[in-house]
Amino acid sequence: MHVLVATDGELDPAAVTKFSLPLAGDTGTVTVLTVIEVPRAMLSDLRDHFNDQQPPILLRTDVETMTATAPLDPPRSWPGDDAIIEQYLANKEQEICAPLVAALEANGVSARSKVVEGPAAKGILKTAADLEVDLIVVGSHGAGLFEGLLGSTGTKVTRLAKRPVLLLRTDIE
Question: Which is the most buried residue in 67, 102, 128, 173, by most CB within 10 A?
């Protein structure tokens, strides 16, 4: 069985392992997914963040688009934007997915990680379809009074999924 575990970093590795181990079985696999929505307006902040790191990220720039009258901030189509977003997503994959993958692998489960950019529910559903998973596991925080009215990611995925969904509550002790 191929299980997709979608997380925003709030899922406990022990709880994920407890539920995923029997589902994936000896021959199955678990893909740990995080979906990050990167508003393009954040690019200036991301540029500042990554350019201040030591050693700096090497970014190729298109010198021809930079003229003496051009603003100091590169235009929206600046070639470095993709490199910065790629690095940001790779960092998030390590930060959010790696602990779950490590816990699963430590218990003998074949696991891998994946990060995609976009709205959470849409990214989860598209990845589930692309990977042809058998089950989607989504964390449910139970955080808000208006969750049912406004629709959480877990609610949207459950309502729109074309495959089984397991909601893993993270607010239960």
Answer: 128
